[in-house]
Amino acid sequence: MSTERSEQVIDTCCTTVHTLGRQNAKKEKSLRYMQKDGKFPVMFQQAPGDWTTYWIDIFTSLVEIRWRMMFLIFSLNNIVSWLLFGLCYWLIAHVNGDSDNADDDLCVSNVRDFTGAFLFSMETGATIGYGYRHVTENSIVAIIVVTIQTVFSCLLDTVVIGVVVAKMASARKRAQTVGFSRCAVVNLRDRVLCLSWRLGDFRGNHILEGVVRVQLIRYVKQPVGSLVITYQDLDIEEREIVLATPTTIIHKLEPGSPLYNMGPDNLQDNRFELVVSFTYTGDSTGILHQTRASYTSADIRWGQRFQDMLKMGKKHYKVDFSLFHVTTWVPVPFLSAEEYNSRGRPADGTTLIPIGKRNRHIAQVNLNINEEMILQTFL
Question: Its family (predicted)?
């Protein structure tokens, strides 16, 4: 290939790189179907039942709220209950005339005003029992109210303990220790173009059984303004995996794949999102967990692969998690899988020859594929 031809090819590649970079920036600002942390930016309007759905399943609602809100709600519940039962004790004392009665005629010992009634209510609800204030046999009503408050306090403590335990063992917290890579890559594996991404467990106790699922989400705006969302499952090589060490999830770009006819040039023009999930059972708690992530076209790096992070030591396998998200460049045809297969895969041993570098973008050409460009760039 002549030098002038090489320079023209490099200029074309760099122009394409900058164009794709601008498209990626625009795509990144668009609304995602699912955020990178697995949350869905969905807001319900005029949902059936409105707030009643949260009251019907109050336990789940308490588990899902933030810790500070939960502590605030339970603190207010205790204070309000003490005030209400204290008001009941004060009314009993007021009706009985305890403010002027002798100590032996009081319904509740040493309770003559609202302050004393509130303190007795707090001691009863918290089962403190200082002994200075106590209910007497002079009023059956006071005895009934004390019984009701004792049962209510036990039920409230049971709910508090259950919610706290459920929140501490929440699947969301465990899911934060299992994660996917920030990007997905496209490279050659056994002369087949493949889309792949990483999955790893950042804790010491490893997951011995889990299932991976991938869905392609497409959303198209209709002329009338409505939005149509379609879902399509993608085939991957291994769905059930053992996550003792980080693994790479692979989807082959073969006939039947919805990404088969997409190349690095028209990849950015297709609005889609890959929603990936890993469902597994925690070995310590036995609770079912799920970790989710999503990849848009802006998150797919063509012509790269993940850095090797697993090494073998004398007694252990060593995993360097600092390389979990790191990628490196590899020779990959700047073609869709469909074009790559129709033009014929290069024979084994064929190399992709680097012919130049400009503005940190590398352009490479495979001389056996009609001088088609192979573009490698940071997206």
Answer: Belongs to the inward rectifier-type potassium channel (TC 1.A.2.1) family.
